[in-house]
Amino acid sequence: MRARIAVLAGDGIGPEVTEEGVRCLTAVATLFQHELELCPLAFGGAAIDSEGEPLPATTLQGVRSADAVLLGAIGGPQWSGSDARLRPEAGLLRLRRELGTFANLRPVRVHPQLLDASTLKAEVISGVDLVFVRELTGGIYFGEKHRDSASARDECSYSAAEIERIVRVAGQLARSRRRRLASIDKSNVLETSRLWREVTQRVMEREFAEVRLEHLLVDAAAMHLIRRPRDFDVLVTENMFGDILTDEASMLAGSLGLLPSASLGEGRRGIYEPIHGSAPDIAGRGIANPYGSILSAALLMRHSLGLEAEAAVLEQAVADALTAGARTADLVRPGEPACSTREAGQAVLSRLRPPE
Ligand code: IPM
Ligand code: MN
Fold first, then answer.
1. Nearest-5° Cα angle at 166, 162 to 168
2. CATH assignment of 1-77+87-107+255-356?
């Protein structure tokens, strides 16, 4: 097949990890005789510097004509002063909104070889395999904002339709997995959460009766996530709770640098990005973990290109690289030798095997 991939490397470690994601994506495509056209586009702080805005019109146009977007990371101290007029983050939020990618899938799997990389006990995290479905284009991220010198306000609102569609994505995913769904809200305090719980209950009862549903308050969920992580299968939640809980959940896997994500909407086009940020403190040193980007490339093949076998080959190569001990600095104990971003990418590339 032929496909066009928009590559938005962004800021900080974004370009370094995306380079490895792209190398792996291209290699798998070649292995299976697909032709990928890669279109690098300016985005984030880098685009503020070069074109005066974080999501330039040319980038949005390029993204619209692509089959999928591979994104790195955005942001950095030079663009984040308290009264910065243009923020890289605004470009990311607008991109998600413009493409209508309301469903953000964040899978968390614990690799047996990495049990010692987590700060949590091996017996608690062994065998964890869960997926967060984070609502991505609504809630407090997109509500009306106000600030003056004496007060500030961020509005949080959700419509029943926005809740229904994200719950359907989660319900379908749960149906294809272990048939368990945890819905996370703060319905003891927030009206949006009371609506969330009511709509979730209704959709699940009517359309996904075979899926076991539990409702959790977000504070309790934060605790249960590290107390009994193996009990979770699919978790669905609103935008900000999902942002916070998935950083927490990354520590089950061992490092924030390992987690990929897929942002999906109505059509096939999606945005694929590691969940980590731009990490300006380590940018440019060649030590960042590229696995989150490489695994995002695998999700891109699966969800936007419909290439399941190809995605599985890439995921297996990452697992094999980790089994062989190819660990970046975030995955080793302080002082132990670590491999570079490039070496980790190479460890995956050299383990790509076509299926028998
Ligand atoms: C993420 C990031 C973004 C978010 C930031 C960079 C706006 O933290 O994708 O998790 O909060 O959604
Ligand atoms: Mn985040």
1. 120
2. 3.40.718.10
